Amino acid sequence: QVQLVESGGGLVQPGGSLRLSCAASRSIYSFDAMGWYRQAPGKERELVADLTPRRSPRYADSVKGRFTMSRDNAPNTVYLQMNSLKPEDTAVYYCSSRYIGTDYWGKGTLVTVSP
After folding, report:
1. Helix, strand, coil shares, percent, the chain, to 5
2. What phi-psi label fits residue 60: left (phi over 0), alpha (psi between -120 and 50 degrees) or beta?
C-alpha cells in the first residue's frame, strides 16, 4: 500500500509561480514511475510530467519550459515547480506512483490561475 499526499496548491495570478509537493509513504526510488497529472473542469485527466528512477523527467508539450519536476529521496518527496502560470493551467493536480504494477493516486491539490 502506498499513500501520496499533495500540497502547495492555491490561487496565483497569471505569470506567477507555485511549487507543488507530493510526499510518499515509502522511498520514491522503490517506485517504477512517478508522475504529476491534472484535471481541469469538464476535461479528462492529463499527464503533466513523469519520471522513473533511471530517467529524467519528461513533460507535456503544454508545460515544457515552464514546469520542472524534481525529486528528493530524503523526505520521500517529488516536486512540481510551476512558473509563468497561465489561466489554462487551472486544474486539480494529482500525484501518482506505480508500485509493483499498481497505480496509486493522491487526493489532489487545486491550482487556480486568475487575475
Report:
1. 5, 55, 40
2. beta
Interstrand relation of 109-113 and 10-12 (parallel, antiparallel or unpaired): parallel
What whole-number distance in Å separates Cα of residue 26 and Cα of residue 7? Answer: 17
For 79-114, the pLDDT digits (tens) are: 999 999 999 999 999 999 999 999 999 999 999 999
Write out the three cell numbers for 20.
507543488
When pLDDT is averaged across residues 64-85 and rounded to a whole number, the result is: 93
- Tell me which H or E stretch contains 48: strand 46-52
Asked if 109 and 19 touch (Cβ cutoff 8 Å), the reply is no
Summarize pLDDT for 19-44 with one digit per residue, the tens.
999 999 999 889 999 999 999 999 99
